[in-house]
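#struct-help
A.M.: can someone run this one for me? Single chain, 679 residues.
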Amino acid sequence: MLMKKTYILLAATTIAVSSAFVMKVMLKGPDQNSMDKKADPRQDFYQYANGNWVKNNPVPASESRWTSFNIVAERNNDMLRKILEDAAADMSAPYGSARQRVGDLYRCIMDTVRLDKDGYMPIKPLLQEVDAIANYEDIIKNVAKQHRMGMDPLFGFGVSPDVRNSEVYAVYASQSGLGLPDRDYYTKEDEKSQQIRTDYVKHIMRMFELIGYNKAEANSAALKIMDFETRLAKVSMTRVERRDIEKQYNKRSLAELQKLTPMFSWDTYFTATGLKQKKFDSVIVMQPKFMEQVSLCFTDFPLSAWKAYLKWNILNTTAGMLSSDLEKQNFAFYSTTLSGQKEQKPRWKRAIGTVNGFIGELAAQEYVKVAFSPESKQRVNEMVNNLMAVYKKRLENVDWMSAETRKRALEKLATMGRKLGYPDKWEEYKGLEIKNDSYVNNFMRTSEWQYNDNINKLGTPIDRAKWGMLPQTVNAYYTPLLNEIVFPAAILQPPFFNAEADDAVNYGSMGAVIGHEISHGFDDKGSKFDAKGNLNNWWTAEDRTKFEAKTKILVNQFNKFKVGDSLYVNGELTLGENIADLAGLSVAYEAYLLSLEGKPKENIDGLSPEQRFFVGFAQVWKNNARPEFTRNQVMTDPHSPGKFRVLGPLSNMPEFYNAFGVKEGDKMWRPETDRAKIW
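D.P.: on it. Structure tokens below:
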């Protein structure tokens, strides 16, 4: 998605459609065609549940991976395409209306003739402004302007709820400014990492050549940029380190901030960004050592290096919105080299991603009219009730927690909010102009609108009605600052939820998703936030020690999952998601049994209810991925690859052992002393 930038610096934790657009899934039990019945579920349950699907569903050329989430997204795309094309064809929509703005944005994205004719001209004035930089104060002003326009040179900056006082907004500064996905791409010395750095420099050179630089000029600029970004990368926190929010809460007064970064004039920056007029007296500096180095860059790099770096941020951010030669070169490196994707998605699909990123709630209003079933919402709400009841019971009876901590945990669960389907109040994007003039111009207008909308939150009440995810997004999330779970309309459909399926399958799939999000409130990060959404240690020291000992078992388990040659899952990076997977599945299983209420158990397709539950869970995580994507995922993503999101939790569950007769000597079996059980 092009509009990737967000000002929520503490990210939320993640994991029914009309018959006119979607083929109904009539399966009552799990999808038999996906299963490999020749595989032994006691040896490799992932292969047993998904083997035929994996064999018969290679990754399409336009994708870097193919999963259940992609399948649902494809169905959504068909709906969204019609919505956008209808809006683009309507030339009578009143200016400023949702239909006009959606239609004009889609139309200008799809107009490749005009994009190729314009070339890089839409950003030429921005590049010329960088050329005109004469001193370090000009650099700060340019950084500020780029931040307003949705770019991230040097560092990230924005407004979000104060994690220690979630009733008020605070200003945050965080590490950013890299062109590669993560600091480790600059610091690792293995052969693959070195090759990626070489390819990155070649990519930068080619991009500069496409905007008129000769080979020598392009090479000089690329080397300066690589040197500059490497400097930032070496002082950046690792992704594992960034999982510790307490280490990143460093509130500094404005005077202290200026002392931390003496070469960076915050007065100049605040004036240029519009923050000078806002009332605030401190900034939460998430990585102080990084910000110190940002200041030192002013003395350690000449103006020529700064200009090359700032131009690259402009060009790199907008490349996908310019002419086809720039867009294709951008795709060749970021999608093919880094993720293995062979072909670009059709332009209309890329346009959907942009519309969602720019003005997604305008499109969502039409989407939910055809894509959301009130019946699905009601049934999912009942599932949430059942899972909450089971979680309450477990918290009341967990044997390693003291009464004092238990009381706080139950309070947090009781106050956990929920959102299903779509917002009660839509974002109107008041004052945002979308025109059929230029893709890049719409990006800059939208970015500045989003920036102003963000900083204008300072001094206002927390907007608890706001969603952090669009209804058309196939995902779900828990946000610790609001202590709430959210399930967009798009995930309330097969294979996650199927009104035609029996409860065993729905609880194994959607129930586990619900349990997963609830569990994020009690994982290693979420458990540091109290019922009001504040970063606050509500645990006794002894209970926290016991909890960490239990989670360490999961870290060790996942560290041993081999992904490829010398590549293993990072158990520390993925710990929060692995806790949520295990706890969510365990709670969903118990909730399913609770839902039966004495109903008779029946076999379907030769599977007992318990077996259908586990197969239904496993089939949510069926996936194929290119090696390049998997490598990037293991290095940067807090979620484990799909296969291990199945094998890991199941190998810890005695209920799974009983359902499939797993015994000592089977590959799915773990000694009881090595099994993780947390909630």
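A.M.: thanks! Confidence is low (pLDDT under 50) at residues 1-11, 16-26.
D.P.: also worth noting: The radius of gyration is 25 Å.
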